[in-house]
Amino acid sequence: MVDKTLLASKIAAIRDAATRVREVIPADREAFAADRTAREVVLLNLFVAIQECMSLATHWLADEGLDVPPTYADVFRRLGERAVITQDLATRLAAASGFRNLVAHQYGALDWGRVYDIAAEGLGDLLSFCDALAARVR
Asked: What are the structural domains, with CATH classification, of the chain?
């Protein structure tokens, strides 16, 4: 059974990070690229939100007694296979875990336009993930 206290805590952290992103993200890509403080706040909070989603996903599988796959992308795919989240959302969250790895391990220079797009459009996926899990434990 899923730990409701852990679930609530992680969902709160994800929602808080999403709120911070929305509070500081400029209206367009050019302004974002030019604003170092906004870039740093957005990047940190995207990282935190995605990391918390990954943690929540692995806890969900483990708490349900299911095997936890070796990669975060596969963790989200497994949740999709189990119909905990939709397959489409699982695919997008698997891609988000790749973005998190890029940030965490500094595989290369970040494309600030891509970061902006993820911040402007991808937060909905993170929040949908929270909503889907919360709805399953009510």
From this structure: 4-137 (1.20.120.580)
